[in-house]
Amino acid sequence: MSAPTRALLVSTLAGLAAVAAVTMTAGAPPWLWPAWALLAGATLVVAVVDRRRN
User: Fold this and answer.
1) How far is CA 44 from its chain centroid?
2) How far is CA 18 from the centre of its chain?
3) Which pTM does this prediction carry?
4) Which of 16, 12, 1 shows the shortest CA–CA distance to 48?
5) Rounded Cα gap, residues 50 and 5, in angstroms
6) Which residues of 20-51 are buried (b: 16+ CB within 10 A; e: fewer)?
């Protein structure tokens, strides 16, 4: 896995932790979970493409 892909994965997981924390403490705005799901989907696509290149 390349460094940029690894950085995107770490950012996605950190975003998951942040969204979960906001949800547990203050309640998430309606757009927050779909936005994170979009980021997770993009991360998955990038990881699959990166893996196929190597």
Assistant:
1) 9
2) 11
3) 0.86
4) 1
5) 7
6) eeeeeeeebeeeeeeebeebeeebeebbeebe
> Quick one: tokens of 36?
């994170």
Q: Is the pLDDT of residue 51 over 80?
A: yes
Q: What are phi and psi of 14, to 5 degrees?
A: -65, -40
Q: Which tokens sit at 47?
A: 């990881």
Q: Is the pLDDT of residue 54 over 80?
A: no
Would the pLDDT of 27 be above 90? no
Say which DSSP state 31 is in.
T
The token pair that represents 14 in the structure block:
């950190």
For residue 28, what are its two tokens?
A: 């998430």
